[in-house]
Design a protein that fits this description.
homodimer; about 350 residues; alpha/beta; 6-stranded mixed sheet; 11 helices; 12 strands; disordered C terminus; DNA-binding
DNA sequence: TGGTCATGGAGAAACGTATCTCCGACGCTT
DNA sequence: AAGCGTCGGAGATACGTTTCTCCATGACCA
């Protein structure tokens, strides 16, 4: 390439990168030759030289061989899409990597930083990454592992909001469908529920199950409604809980919302068309994905976070709001449906 | 690292990669020191030296700033997930890149090959990649651009199958909701429909709209049912067509399936719970994603495809079956629903 | 005793870029 | 005429691997 243009390697590099002191004449000539030859600078060499690959990792704890979990598929898909976009907007590309099997693929990819979704307490992978000096930003407040920064929903406020909403709709005994794992989401949500129960003097009514097992969810939903002290309203922490609870309610001849109020946390729009439509809590994964990636890239590029003078032990955190999408399943007085009244079929 | 272990660089490389002739003793010693130091070989340097990055790109033509289209979101999400898994299973990582803006991110990433979803005719990006000697495998039979290999559904057979299915359910005038773009999927499907119309002597009844515009779809669905020669069955090529057609049918007081049979192509499971549930054609994106990635990696690693001696102009192609998920919307005699008959509520 | 061979490991080149240093040439000032 | 500043660009080095070549050491055999 340098030879073809009749100049030195230095000149080529300077011309293409807009550096050095070169007359525009030389610059354009070099670029023209490069174009003609279809020359592309080697990304690998640049990475080796500069120490920057322009690649960031996205990883999530998994419970199988799939690179992401099923229970949160809609959440993850939206979040990953937003993260990919945000990265591209700033000139980075995003690689999805499995949290397990650290040594296979991870060593083969040069990463400038990593986004970790839902790290577990004392996550060994996060610690490992952090030890290597790589910026790590987590989606979900980290339990006990050091991260550069983190973003999370305000789960406490979200759960309290839902419980208030259900109470106002007439619920007297609100139940919870929760998980057995120790991630932040499950933990904070459950704690908020228990705290609320204490404050209003209701005895807790909940069932916990391993969230990664789709069948266990259906069983737990059934168990919750089969209790002698059956709740008259239920909040389900995981996406499939809505349909599971609806099916269980049908088995016990509970009308929703008349006999049972229902809310679940989900990003899926199927709940807009179920019978009845189910109120859902959206964690706004798009905003989370965008924020997380931007924080990560700020850290990579050495832009100090402006909001805090000194990061605390777990880096600086940021709480994002959630959104409650109220539908019929959580309203005792359903709003008049907008479906048109049946009229006689008109021909053509 | 080499100094810390008291051996040469060569020995370190050999020990870690399992090459060269070294006694197990030396090997384990080097590995132990590496472990203690937290040493990781530089992926950038390895890539530079070997010419392999272990990275493959996944790109899809977009109609906005988002890295993937909305109309096919469920398809894309599933396909991308399968592709990511398949890549990881073979030690590769997958990077999602936008089809537009060739020069920003693309130059910064060292790719071993690329998967292209739905390349357009004479796709300049595909041609560019191919010119650089990078293997390119496309999802969707390429129109006129050179690719290493391609995978596609048998759209012809799929459409014919649906039309037969509808005809057997009693349809006399089958309409089509199609797109205006020139991608293979739209083109082949429409051609199959027109051919079928000719063969059975039905006049074609279709509306075409720009598939990337979600509103245009609803309008086109309405237009199709507003025609004087209104069809008594419709097949919609794109995911949102099902709900759009259902809404339009409601406006014209057409009962589904009694007055109007409905089928659409979709990967979304919302159509299992609509009223009535809608028959869908699944393109089996998971299998496509897996196959595409495996073909690409075969090409990267120089594994010749076994099925064909010499690749034709557009590389070797492979047709994958689709799956018709029959639901109430396309059956005049609906099967008895499997919902359990109501039983009296049993207490606890 | 000299030659051959296997073993264990070191040396050095090359991958392609970015960047620091330096050099020649030219114009200008004193 | 000598010195100085600027412009345009070349040289050289380092980034950290992989891999090819080659060397030293013994052991074994004729």
């Amino acid at each position: 390439m340098a030879a073809a243009a009749g100049v030195s390697i230095t000149t080529v590099s300077d011309a293409l990168n807009g550096k050095g002191r070169l007359p525009d004449e030389t610059r354009t000539k070099v670029r023209e030759v490069a174009e003609r030859l279809g020359y592309r600078p080697s990304a690998a060499a640049r990475t080796l030289r500069t120490g920057r690959s322009g690649l960031i990792g996205l990883t999530v704890t998994t419970y199988g061989q799939e690179p992401f979990t099923f229970t949160e598929f809609a959440y993850f898909a939206e979040m990953a899409r937003a993260a990919t976009s945000a990265a591209l907007n700033r000139g980075y590309a995003l690689v999805v990597l499995p949290a397990s099997s650290r040594h296979d693929v991870w060593s083969n990819v040069a990463l400038d930083g990593t986004v970790v979704i839902d790290p577990s307490d004392h996550d060994p992978m996060v610690a490992d990454l952090y030890r290597q000096g790589l910026p790590v930003v987590s989606d979900g407040k980290p339990g006990n592992c050091p991260v550069t920064a983190w973003v999370d929903n305000d789960h406490h406020a979200a759960v309290l909001g839902i419980l208030e909403h259900l109470a106002q709709a007439g619920a007297r005994r609100i139940g919870l469908l929760t998980g057995t794992s120790t991630d932040t989401y499950t933990r904070l949500s459950t704690e908020a529920y228990l705290g609320w129960c204490r404050s209003v003097g209701q005895e807790p009514l909940y069932e916990a199950y391993p969230a990664h097992d789709p069948c266990a969810g259906a069983v737990a939903a059934d168990r919750l409604l089969a209790r002698p002290d059956r709740p008259d309203a239920v909040y389900g922490l995981f996406d499939p809980n809505g349909t599971d609870l609806l099916a269980a309610a049908r088995r016990y001849h509970l009308r929703v919302p008349d006999d049972l109020l229902l809310v679940c946390c989900s990003e899926s729009d199927v709940y807009a068309t179920t019978e009845p439509p189910i109120t859902t809590l959206s964690l706004k994964p798009r905003r989370i994905g965008t924020t997380v990636v931007n924080l990560l890239i700020d850290a990579i590029e050495g832009i100090a976070p402006a909001d805090e003078t000194a990061a605390d032990q777990n880096g600086s955190g940021q709480l994002m709001p959630t959104e409650l999408i109220v539908r019929r399943s959580s309203q005792r007085r359903p709003p008049r449906t907008t479906v048109a009244a049946p009229r006689p079929p008109g021909e053509a």
